[in-house]
Structures are given as structure tokens and as C-alpha cells.
Amino acid sequence: MSTNQPEKGLAVVTGASTGIGYELAKCAAQDGYDLVIVADEPRIQDAAATLKEFGVSVEAMQGDLATPEGVRRFIAGLDALGRPVDLLMANAGRGLGDGFLDQKIAEAQRVVDTNISGTIALVHSVAGRMRSRGKGRILFTGSIAGFMPGAFQAVYNGTKAFINSFSFALREELKGTGVSVTCLMPGPTDTEFFERADMLDTPVGQGKKDDPAFVAKTGYEAMLDGEGDVAAGWKNKVMTAAANVTPAETLAKQHRKMAEPDDSRN
Predict the structure, then answer these.
(1) Do residues 53 and 25 make contact, with C-beta atoms less than 8 angstroms apart?
(2) Which residues on adjacent β-strands are paired with residue 181?
(3) Beta-bridge mates of residue 38
(4) Which residues partner with 37 through β-bridges?
(5) pTM of the model
(6) How much is the pLDDT for 232?
(7) How far apart are CA 227 and CA 94, in angstroms?
(8) Where is the stretch described as Disordered (predicted)?
């Protein structure tokens, strides 16, 4: 683990009931941080019960960070604890497969509200307080998908392109303040993402995926080291580098081969 760790304190993890978010919370708990975890499902309480076994304090909140009211309630809950946030891991996210015109617009909008609107609203509040203290570390869960025009996953990839870009911009703005910003950019990971996004009938949904514990540890350690970004695994690093020099039209065609549902293919 990094020798540049901040003093142990409070870590906040969003989307922490399962997958990468749960594993990020586990990393922090193993490292001695007390936790505040949040998700929009009751399983957040099961996650809290398991994480308490590491001997740290765990506060679990069920809330919908895709809504302004959900964000306000969560921030009020943080305020009620009376403790500063040392680590903020903004991991909550939502996917959606299929062609854009075949998606329900309410579901597409919810992806934007979860991945972008709720995320930046929460970060604006917490990061502002970190800056005032002159101390804190922020980890965004972006994606290598943000480097590719996401045919048959267009809204999701667009939101991750935003998060990837936003994290670098915020990192630059916060230089010299004592607050660092890191972007974790996973590839396909073995979580419930593809089932929830209705993508189990796609090549990427059926293909080999990374271990969420490995992905989370990679991002967590990069955050503690103050790195700007990290792609988990050599294959994802290669894909990210290739995407930077490949025409967007070619990337969109490649993504179609990965994400197009069985019943949409000719």
C-alpha cells in the first residue's frame, strides 16, 4: 500500500452495495477507514453488515443519488455525522444497452441523472469542504468506454466520456489545494452491470471480464498515490492507448460488434 496515505479517517463510497463499489469500500475498511456507504437498494444494509467485520464503523444509507432530493438527503446525513470526509469514491453508476431509439427515454435520462448529474452534485459539496480543509482524495469510477463512441450503448458511453473528462479538469483546478482527483477506468468487469443494463445477449456481456476486487484495489491504490488516472489491467491500458489514435467512426463500428444485441444483428 502507498506510503503517501492520508491519516485514517472517514471514507464515503457511492454505489457500494455490490461490485466495484463494494470492493472499494472493502479496501478502505481493510485500511482502517470508517465508512459511509450508499446505494439505491436495500442490499446496502447487507454490505454494511459484512464490512463491519473489519472492525470499523459503517454507516449505510439507502438513497437515490440520481435525484437532487436524494443528493440533498445524503449530504444532510453526512453533515449529521459531524466528521470530515477524507476519501470520496464516487462510484454510483447505471448502464443501458440497446439502440438509443429503442430505449425508453426515461431510462436513458436516468443513466444521465445517475452517472453525471447526481455525481457532480455530490462532488461539488464534498470536494468544496475538502478544499476548505486543504485535505482529501477523490476517486471517480469512469470507464474505458468513455474513449469509444458507444454504438448500442450510446448514452452510457457518453456519460463516462463526461466523467473521464470532468475528473481531469477538476484535478487541474484543485492542484495545490491538498485535494487530489483520480479517475479509475475499468473495462468489462464481472459485476451485475450487464444484467442490469440488459446486455447479457451481447458479445461483451457474454465475454471474459475482470475481477471487481482487482479493479477496485487498482483504483484505490492509485487514489492514495494521487495518480490522475488508472486503467485496470494491461488489456484495458492497450485499448485506451489505441482509442486515442483510432478514428471515432472506426471505434463506433468496433463497439457495435461488442454491444449489439443478438436480435439486432443481421
Answers:
(1) no
(2) 138
(3) 14, 61
(4) 13, 60
(5) 0.88
(6) 75
(7) 25
(8) 247-266
SS3 179: strand
Q: Which residues lie closer than 8 Å to 167 by C-beta, 6 or more apart? A: 140, 142, 181, 182, 183, 229
Give the chain's length.
266
Please report the pLDDT score of residue 262 as a whole number.
78
- Taking the alpha carbons at both ends of the chain, their separation in whole angstroms is 49
* Residues annotated as catalytic (active site), given as ranges: 156, 160
Helix (H, G, I), strand (E, B) or coil at 235: helix
Residue 224 in grid coordinates: 492514495
Taking the CA atoms of 217, 220, 226 and 231 in sequence, report the sign of the dihedral they define.
Answer: positive
Per-residue pLDDT, 131: 98
Q: Write phi, then psi, for 110 (nearest 5 degrees).
A: -65, -35
CATH architecture, domain defined by 10-264? 3-Layer(aba) Sandwich (3.40)
Residue 44 forms beta bridges with which residues?
none
Instruction: Tell me the longest C-alpha to C-alpha distance in the chain.
Output: 58
Position 250 scores a pLDDT of 82
The contacts of residue 24 (CB under 8 Å, 6+ apart) are 13, 16, 89, 91, 139, 216, 219, 220
Residues of the chain with pLDDT under 50: 1-7, 265-266
Q: What is the pLDDT of residue 3?
A: 43
DSSP 8-state secondary structure symbol assigned to residue 144: G
